[in-house]
Amino acid sequence: MTVTPEEIGLCGCWQVIAVRRERIELGRKAGPPSDDLGYYATSLAPDQLDEVGLLEAIQGHWDAIENGTHHRRDVSFGEDASQVSQRGAAQVLAALRNLALGLYELEVERGRTQAPGVKSWCRQMSASAALALLRR
User: Fold this and answer.
1) Which of 17, 37, 90, 93 has the fewest CB atoms within 10 Å, counting from its CB?
2) What is the pLDDT along the chain (136 residues), one digit of tens a residue?
């Protein structure tokens, strides 16, 4: 929907987009499909991106997140299953997971590990060895 900033109350907002998603849970406790509505606001004018272009931009944004470090943290460290509920603690754990991924990637790049993945590399790592890596 095309809007003016005054109509929407957001400075610089020229379009509002509603995206309907059908969510299908997988696994043993999967329930029936559910609908989810996501709302997006953009400063792009209608002549800059049409509906298809906006949808591609939204999908590209979420693809980058899911296929980036979030996906790697979830696969390697089971981040989505974490039951840590305090925001600060969750941020610290995400930072530590990112640090572990970064150190692993550096070791792979430098040819210093034969571990097939970050998970197995972490199992081989001791606290003193990890600290030594940070000093290099």
Assistant:
1) 37
2) 777 778 888 888 888 888 888 888 777 777 888 888 888 888 888 889 888 888 888 888 777 666 677 778 888 888 888 888 898 998 999 889 888 888 898 899 989 988 888 888 988 888 888 888 888 7
**CA 47 – CA 71 distance, rounded (Å):** 34
Q: Are residues 48 and 12 part of one domain?
A: yes
Give one DSSP letter per residue of 11-69, joined into a string: TT--EEEEEEEEE---STT----EEEEEEEEES--TTT--HHHHHHHHHHHHHHHHHTH
Domain encompassing residue 58: 5-67
Distance CA 41, CA 119 (A): 39
Strand partners, 15: 2, 42
pTM for the model stands at 0.53
